[in-house]
Amino acid sequence: MSKTLALLFFASSFFLVAQHNSLTTEDFNSDGITDQMKCIYDVGSSFGGGTCEITDGKTKKTFSLSNYGCFCAIKKRIVIEPDLQKKQNEYFLYHLKKEVLPVFRSTPDQSLLWIINSGLNTRNPKNITDFDLIFNPKTTWRQEVPELPSTYYIEMNAGTLDKITKKDTISSAKKKPSIKKDYLVYFGDTHVSTDSTSVPDFISISKNGTYEILKTKHGVLVKKDKSYKWLFVTDLDINDSPEKLRWASIDEVFLQEQYAIVKQNLAPRNEFHVYLINIETGVGGRLKLDFDVLEERGIKLLELKSEERFSIKENAIVIGKGKNYLKLPLTELKQKLTLLMNE
User: Model's pTM, two decimal places?
Assistant: First the structure.
């Protein structure tokens, strides 16, 4: 991992405010003329990253690469300016990547693949009162041991990246999108705890006769016999995120028959999201919860205990206590999710 990414990961795990600048003089493209690379590493509480630029000693043109962004984003698009992708500038790109990007991976792991496929197959249903988001990552069962996510980058078609990344999470968004390929950085290390006393691993949540639910800080996966698949990953572009990924977004996960019910933490906000996911199809829906309406009905989250804010009782999702509560029957929700899946 480059020192830029190491600093970013450290900052996403602990509160840190720092800025570090560097200047390197070297003949990066071996044309006999000295070039210059300037780097600025700026890390705050919620945003940070590194920006490096190389000035060609011969042409005086400047090329830059940046990964600056929000610590709430588990992935980041790195836009490569067209001139930097030209053959004559490949050495400049090589040195910029060494400074700004983590290790390269030719294919995404299954957790990032879930993000990519969900980003391409997510919609907001109209005229539906129960769900405000439907995702279909088209996952299949994998006959292997699940891989713990790590931090790396991949190359992707710029047109595909346009569909799965929002403008405010694109590094160097002021530049025009590349007509070729850009990079996608995946901060997979945020899935696991940075506690040096523990060995990073998946956490087993619950089991029934068929399935076992596992989770990370930001993802949920399921095992069946000797196979597995990812069911959910927190991603700002697709489903929302806490302000900082050092805060676990996967709060609670319930297993009910062939469905997983996921409660997503959105700290420091008091609100949360709830997802109903069909394990076999992988299709999931986010429940439409209006917390202003809940407040008007006397359901005050700050006054509720954890189990009163969200629980599964009598085959229903329950939010609230006493006379002030919201009850959502799971049988009806499952039926409506199936109808939406078949649309």
Answer: 0.89
